[in-house]
Design brief:
The complex is a heterodimer of chains A (about 500) and B (about 300). In chain A, about 55% of the residues lie in helices and about 10% in strands. With about 500 residues, chain A is an alpha+beta fold. Chain A folds into three domains: about 70 residues, MalF N-terminal region-like (Methane Monooxygenase Hydroxylase, Chain G, domain 1), CATH 1.20.58.370; about 100 residues, Periplasmic binding protein-like II, CATH 2.40.430; about 250 residues, MetI-like fold (Orthogonal Bundle). In chain A, the strands form three sheets. Chain A has a seven-stranded mixed β-barrel. A five-stranded antiparallel sheet of chain A has the order 10-11-12-13-14. A two-stranded antiparallel sheet of chain A has the order 1-9. In chain A, helix 9 runs parallel beside helix 14 and helix 11 packs across helix 13. The longest helix of chain A is centred in the middle third of the chain and has 36 residues. The two termini of chain B are about 40 Å apart. Chain B folds into two domains: about 70 residues; about 210 residues, Orthogonal Bundle (MetI-like fold), CATH 1.10.3720. In chain B, the strands form two sheets. In chain B, strands 1-2 form a two-stranded antiparallel ribbon. Chain B is mainly alpha-helical. The chains are: A alpha+beta (about 500), B mainly alpha (about 300). Chains A and B meet through helix 3, helix 7, helix 8, helix 9 and helix 11 of A and helix 1, helix 3, helix 4, helix 5 and helix 6 of B.
Amino acid sequence: MPMPPVLKRLLPSLLMVLLGLAGLYAVTVVYATGETLLAGVMLVTLVCFVWIYTSKKTYAYRYLFPGIGAALIFVVFPMLYTIRIGFTNYSSTNLLTFKRATQYLLEETYRAEGATYTSELHADGGRWRFRLEDADSGAAFATEPFALGAEGTHLTLKAQPATGPLPGDEMPLKDLIDRQPFLKGLAVVMPDGSQVRMTGLREFAPSRPQFTRNADGSLTNNETHDVLRPNFKTGFYETADGESVTPGFQVDIGWKNYVDIFTDTSLREPLWRIFTWTIVFSTLTVVFCTALGMVLAVLLSWENLRFRGVYRLLLFLPYAVPGFISILVFKGLFNNNFGEINLVLNGLFGIKPTWFSDPFLAKTMILIVNTWLGFPYMMVVCMGLIKAIPQDLYEASAVAGAGPITNFFRITMPLILKPLTPLLISSFAFNFNNFVLISLLTGGLPDFLNTSTPAGTTDILVSYTYRMAFQDSGQKFGLGAAISTVVFLMVAVISMIQIRSTRIAEDTKR
Amino acid sequence: MAIVIDKSQRWRVVAAHVFLICLCALVIFPLLMVVSISLRPGNFATGSLIPTTISLEHWRFALGLPVTNADGQVIIPDLPVLRWLWNSVKVATLSATTAVLLSTTAAYAFARMKFAGKKASLVGLMLMQMFPTILALIAIHAIFSRLGHTFPAFGIDSPWALVLAYSGGIALHIWTIKGFYETIPAEIEEAATVDGATPWQAFWRVLLPMALPIIMVIFLLAFIGAVNEYPVASILLRSQDQLTMAAGMKQFLYQQKYLWGDFAAAAILSGLPIAVVFILVQRWMISGLTAGANKG
């Protein structure tokens, strides 16, 4: 379709203005719901977007914006946010924001004195009416018709005395259940001036809001006339004598989580043991995988050996099978009672090791499985490095009468160990955080006895924080995030060592 | 190779073969066992590697077909394996597409353009890669559960949340594609520019068609990565119907409900295609191999 040139020139800027306005509208809507952080992130993204795609100076950034933006928002931001959460009391008891916790309390109701009514909801054209019948006297009332709305809308309806049943069909129970969140927000004013609310699926009773908000932010309990004040140190509304009322809300608690990690004995004790095991686990994994991988690489680089391609493919298989599948396969094979490995061991030696309930055996099993998973990578890498060793070195050593063992320890290993170092460190860093293996194989079990929060003998630091946050110990997000932050620092140190060793490896290459 | 041939060499060759064959047997044993287990009748049955009676009940279970057990009871499979597989494919396709779109464009700027902060952002991407996502799990959970209050489509239990969460992990892909672009002479695009093409046209019409092989590889790697990803999927997805294969598979091996045979069939069903694709693309993973580590 031919377009007038003026329009063609103006169209992009026009589109940009429209997009910008639509974005601003969305930001405002989100801000109005109280999600300040989200609105802020959206606003920054929007401003960057409009600036980058309109300014001529930022042309290169137009290509970078989507990719780098995604990386910043979904990788860097979560990391910073983890650190942030580490300074809060975010947990299952303090899950909500202050605003939502207040709202939750304000929506609480209590049942006041007065008559109760059985209710029926009848259709009335496109709208609905309640029929209320006094349970004691049998007097019937009908409300004015109303339209169904969304949860959170508050309607006040007037009821008039009614005779006989209402004409329309009654709402089916299933719909009634679906609509309950909305219907609970209705208030019905009876002819005598009393106010009733829905207290059950088929019941209305006088109910009043439990709390009323005062001008200074405190809440007054309408039933007991206690005054609740928010305590921003503990994250709870508290009565005058210091009793806290659930739900709590998130507040900053400064360094408390960190202080707990390093001083609370019930926490420090298992944490220290878990840390030690994490180090042992990742070190031994790297040692075993490298040793096996290197020996295999040497063998598979030996030209006098036939069928090397077949061996290579077969030995590479563990690397190709998705980790979550092979780990679970081992979980089944090692099963104490029905596992195939114990069947074989029982048949050969008459033993049935309890792989999952004995801490030492569980750790052994983890190392066996992780070596199986990890050696092919080291094998492939070492094969590449061996190819780069000049052949004349071996020829010279053959002339000197050296055997293959001498060759391996004097030539091959020293020469590939140096370029291998950065990879060994990154492999260490990976296994330091090898959550998938621990989580799927043992889940950290067997647990330590006598610890305040569940902690396992095979848990590594990351699987421990996962359990703390998402499994058996009450969603301690704040504490878990604090531990994660400490692990962040450890990873940063490992990375620094790695970068340095990479630089050394590259320098020696030249 | 060595000029002097040792007398003991023949023995060494034999010894090497014996060692390698034993090791291969050890490595392959678990994989063959799974095939055998998936064909055995019953979830607790034991037997030799080659099953004496072949039963397809586990495969029927994995495919969601009703199974009649030994007592004549009909069991309807309660783990929606095919549904999980479909979820995995859906999430992986979407996030691989996203990864390709985001990383090809960003890599173009890094390979061909001059701009402030280029070196710093490249190093920054590399550093980002070093910190595992798993450390930010709590924040990711918090972010998406809050996002879900405002935009339910991107909240907990939505495949879109997973796609968004994966979309940031493109640092390695950007490096790989940038390396590939740099092997293509810039003169070809410059010629196009001389003929009046805008930089966007030079990228879209000239460079990108030439980079098709690497785009395919990145797509497949991102696809496999998303299918295999477990930690984020396990915290963002809750309801049975939304789970991906990686997040759902462990349900086969709960202590109180141990479905070993059914697990084996489902494992082959989902694992085999991925393993084959992986073997086909792994030789392209040069950068991935040297920068990565163990598998998880």
